[in-house]
Every structure is written in structure tokens, then in C-alpha cells.
Amino acid sequence: TGTISSLQRQMEIQESELRRIRSEKELLQKQLREREMQLQAMSDKFSSLTQEQRQEEIVLVMEEENRNLHQVVTKQESQLAEQSKLINELKTTINQRQAEVVNTHLQLLEQKQTQKEMQSQADALQHEALQTKVALERITCKFERFRNKIIQATFSVEGSQDPPGELTDNEVLEAMQKIINERTEFQQLLKNKGSK
């Protein structure tokens, strides 16, 4: 945007210079026409004089001045063409910069939209993770209660000894398996004796 503003200022300066050159050109053309009219008037005036040599000298001087004015006008026209070319180039550059600004703006909008979608997905994942954490805590709590019940049932059997300390899951399973085996053997023994 700064570059575009700078280019627009340059273009305004060049257009001002162009207007100045055009004004100077019009002024010079006006002067040229006036000189030509003066030359014609002097030619008409001196045509009746007998001093032909003096008349020719004056005419030559006027023609020289006219040639000089023509050269100045030609130079002004050349400068005018250069200024017009420069202004066109500046306009093209400004159009390119404005197109780049529009494209950059569109890219920024797309990035903001993508960022918004990613933030929404991140929020959804965070919410899902929180729900999973809560569910895991519930399952862990239920598992601990179930484990404690197993330990209590396993070591509250008559004849069993209290655990020496914190039990691992494998130790709890082994103790349960031992009780199950003992009860299975006891049931088998009762069946063999004919007892219900």
C-alpha cells in the first residue's frame, strides 16, 4: 500500500509536469503564430520598400527566430511524449501493485478462515480429551473399588492371612485363583461323598 501511494504521488507529479509542458507548448505555439503573423506583416510592409537588402536581412532574422521556436516546440513535444510514456508505466505499475494487494488480502482471508477452522477442531479435540479424561477417571475409580472388593473377598476367607503390604494385580489374581481351586476341590470332594 505504501508503494502504491508513492507511485501515485510520482504519477501526480509527472501529470503536473505534463500539464506544465503542455501549457508551455501552447504558449510557444501561440508565440510562433504571433511571430509568423509579424513576419507576414513585416514582409507585407517591406515589400513596398526599395531597401530590398534590409528587408531580406529582417526576413532572415525572423525566419531564424521561427526555426528556433520550432526547435523549442519539437523539444517540448518530445518531453511531452516521454512524460506520457512514464505516466502510462506508472499507471501499469500501480495496477499491478493493486492486484498484488487484492491477492494478498484474499490470501490473508483464506489463512484466517483456515486458522478459524483449525481452532474449532482444536477446541473440539480438547473437549473430547476432557470427556475422555473424565470417563477414564470414572473407570479407574470403579476398577479400584472392584479391586478392593476382590482383595476383601479374597483375604476375608476363613484361614487366609492378611496381605503383607500393597498387592499387585497378579498377586490378587493368584490369590483368587487359589481360592477358586480350593472351593472346586472341596465341591468335588463333597460330590464324591454323596453330599448335596
TrEMBL record:
Keyword set includes Transmembrane helix: no
Keyword Coiled coil: yes
Coiled-coil annotated residue ranges, if any: 4-45, 73-128
InterPro entries found in the cross-reference section: CC-FHA_domain
Domain of life of the source: Eukaryota
Keywords: Coiled coil
Record's protein name: CCD27 protein
Organism: Donacobius atricapilla
